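User: I want to check something. If I give you two sequences, will you return the structure for each one separately, not as a complex?

Assistant: Yes, each is folded on its own. Here is the first sequence with its structure:
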Amino acid sequence: MIRLTRFGRDVILKVFILVFLLTLSALFVNSSVYVFAAVSISALLWIFTLYFFRDPERKLPDGYKLNQLLSPGDGKVVVIENITNTEKNIFEKGEELIQISIFLSPLNVHVNRIPLTGEVKYLNYIKGDYIVAFDHKSSERNERSEIGIEDNMNGNKVLFKQIAGFVARRIVYDIKNGDRVTAGDRFGMIKFGSRIDILISKSSNVLVKIDQKVTGGETIIAEF
């Protein structure tokens, strides 16, 4: 049986009501064309909704080590580049970093997972625009959350961003500053198409390539 994420309950309920009313209306309209259209649209909408909000079980990869960084989401790697941090967050302003960006299509699993075991040291929500997630400017202009985690034992840090896209209009997360989090655990989702940016220190070893498909909570994308 398909597992559905708790982060999508509100949308699933709304779609169920819409599908129910649309199907019910077909009983009162004397038109075979309308009945066919109403039932077809209802079925496709319901199937897509259940598929989009699926939440499969994931397990840590064999041999996983605490100095390794997991992908926070499913999708395709679209950016790997060196950048200079322009703001003070979990990293210092002006610090040289590596940015890895993952694009999530509407067909990907959209439940996001913690990439590193540690403590949430930085959390910021920014209300912004909704330009297409493939555009590099979306990292700085779109609605997004910014979450910084530090491994207090080894000092490793990661800053990752849930970025809304042209279709995605809601970012959800249930963690807060000071929370202890564990790599691989669910923490939120971006609804309907999106992007995740991951920022790590320049000394890190990146283990993925451009256009590589990654799986949230299972693919190791870098080592500290």
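And separately, the second sequence with its own structure:
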Amino acid sequence: MVNYEIKNGVVLLAEPFMLDPNFRRAAVLLCEHSPEGSMGFIMNRPTDLRVDELIDGFPEFTAPVFEGGPVQMDTIHYVHNVGHILDDSHQVVEGIYWGGDFEKLKFLIRSQLVLPENIRFFMGYAGWDEGQLLDEMAIGSWVLAEMHQNYLFKSSPEVLWQQVMYNKGDAYSVIAYMPDAPNWN
């Protein structure tokens, strides 16, 4: 069984019976981890909203907005695979970038150089204060998994938690198919 260290670019999978509704069966891409704290985005909570409906002057764009987490739900963040053309992007892992020049992003969208399949928008984020994520890991709230860009850009959000858990193999592949509530057995 492979254990991953907590670092930028890993996936945090909520343990199967986590009671916190903010993170129940969540698959979180960890974008920043340091001794001061951690932050990332829940990849499997799409909304019915589009980014062009939320931001005035944003070009028409059919990309859905995801609930990134319970912190600062009035902010918009984006993760993409076009860091080579979007200035000021921060590489999270190979093929996945966070942020970048917002005005240039709008230009790239208008020019159809960035398409909905290249980017994910998030309202809010998941955040942990200094030591909080390590404490949650110590009590078994999260399972770490390796991130792959297909999880973000190609996988169906509705089955992402299950898919990543299954891909870990061993006992995790059994956990992936556990019902959401034990009384459903």
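Because they were folded independently, the notes below concern the second chain alone. Residues 27 and 43 are 6 Å apart (CA to CA). The longest strand covers residues 119-129.
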